[in-house]
Design brief:
The protein is an alpha/beta fold. It has helices spanning 3-22, 36-49, 94-108, 111-116, 167-179, 210-228, and strands spanning 26-29, 58-63, 77-81, 86-91, 124-127, 137-139, 184-188, 233-234. A 5-stranded mixed β-sheet has the order 1-2-4-3-5, covered by helices on one side. The protein is elongated.
């Protein structure tokens, strides 16, 4: 195959790909650089819209600030139609954008709207959570005496808490929590720090082997990151 023919094929491939994507849904973020939380929110909308908005719907996402033009409360949002097949998601903050996008996903999944293959045309909704902290407690505990003879001092190990190390299960659970607008998650344990922190001056305070400590640190870093992009505070 000659170089000239190869170049023509490349150009043709790019042209066809451009035409195919030209009518797809556009999501425009207007407020600075998108954070992991904003990216997660937009990803959920993109998944819900996939295959339904080939005629070129547009969703404009922005962070307005608490108490600005729409007088939004913390974590509050406004969804507003902006004309034919165009919707604005306005958040008081990043979590407001996230909740607004999730609310839009619920609207999109309405069978009648999906059948029409256009974004809601008469949408004007403002909402915000009533409670400041909302979330469950995960007991890093067992219903028997701990290895030290007490009831609350269980170290973080795969033997005692295998579920703690299951990332797929955590993702599923965190997706569920944000779907019902939870914003906090509590790991309840009498004294977790001996499983997570190593102090040079007190090496005897560490209660797990080094390989478990490394695993726990990696898991906690990953878990806090996954929580943060869903607007969940890990406590």
């Amino acid at each position: 195959m000659s170089v000239r023919v190869l170049k023509r094929l490349i150009v043709l491939t790019v042209f066809v790909a451009s035409c195919a994507s030209a009518g797809e849904l556009k999501i425009i973020y207007k407020t600075g650089k998108a954070t992991p939380r904003i990216n997660y929110a937009v990803e959920q909308v993109s998944k819900a819209c996939k295959g339904y908005y080939a005629k070129g719907g547009t969703i404009v996402v922005s962070v307005q600030g608490v108490g600005k033009a729409d007088n939004l409360k913390p974590e509050g949002f406004r969804l507003k139609s902006l004309g034919k097949n165009k919707v604005a998601v306005i958040g008081a903050d990043q979590s407001g954008v996230l909740y607004g996008c999730l609310e839009l996903v619920d609207c999109i999944r309405n069978a009648r709207i999906r059948d029409s293959k256009v974004l809601p045309a008469k949408l004007d909704l403002t909402d915000s959570p009533e409670f400041k902290l909302r979330g469950p407690a995960i007991g890093m505990q067992k219903l028997k005496k701990d290895p030290y003879g007490g009831h609350y001092h269980w170290p973080y190990t795969p033997t005692y808490f295998p579920f703690f190390y299951d990332k797929a299960q955590w993702r599923e659970y965190l997706d569920f929590l944000v779907s019902i607008r939870m914003n906090s998650l509590y790991l309840w344990n009498g004294h977790p720090f001996a499983s997570l922190v190593q102090l040079e001056d007190y090496p005897e305070a560490l209660e797990v082997p080094q390989e478990i400590l490394d695993k726990n640190r990696e898991l906690m870093y990953w878990l806090t990151s996954e929580c943060d992009k869903r607007g969940i505070w890990l406590i």
